[in-house]
Amino acid sequence: EDQVTQSPEALRLQEGESSSLNCSYTVSGLRGLFWYRQDPGKGPEFLFTLYSAGEEKEKERLKATLTKKESFLHITAPKPEDSATYLCAVQSPATSGTYKYIFGTGTRLKVLA
Amino acid sequence: GAGVSQSPRYKVAKRGQDVALRCDPISGHVSLFWYQQALGQGPEFLTYFQNEAQLDKSGLPSDRFFAERPEGSVSTLKIQRTQQEDSAVYLCASSYSDWGDNEQFFGPGTRLTVL
Predict the structure, then answer these.
(1) B32's torsion region: left (phi>0), alpha (psi -120 to 50) or beta?
(2) Which residue from A minimizes the CA distance to B5?
(3) Which stretch of B39-43, B55-59, B96-100 has the lowest confidence by average pLDDT?
(4) Which residues of B touch A (CB under 8 A)?
């Protein structure tokens, strides 16, 4: 069964303390892996799309990497405004000829000043 | 430029009532998705439209859930005879690419509470 698992569930960091969030996936075929940020009471906000193993993308203090089994979201020198829930989603072919999206449960990040 | 909007933002329904949730996607976006997000969980896929065609409704939990996008722009998610387990945030997302291959732009969601 296809699934997406994110760890840790929650993470508290001091401002400036770098860390990584993990997204492990098991799917029949990866079409794309997406990272989103979600603030309380809002919809998810797109961060990155990764398509193949070895691919990396960066945006400000964030860097996403992808292997055949997992993706990491590295946060370098985080600031309090980086506090949010980070969601990982996988797009893969469905048996019906369509594509399915599976989201993980997210990592709740809190950065303390 | 306006993003994805959803209305109402909050809806309280008594068990058994019918509700209609509206999504206004970004103009010109081909793809439109509906998701259900329970508290503390990630979004769960409900249905997908490509223009006016509903290509995937495999995620709709029961036949009480119905979605439409008749002119390929605004979409409505209707839930008939609401149950308490329907309480959740309903998110709409749109994308300029087929199947949302690149990025999806999410609305703020409608929080549905069924009493």
Answers:
(1) beta
(2) A43
(3) B96-100
(4) 4, 33, 35, 40-45, 48, 55-56, 58, 91, 93, 99-109
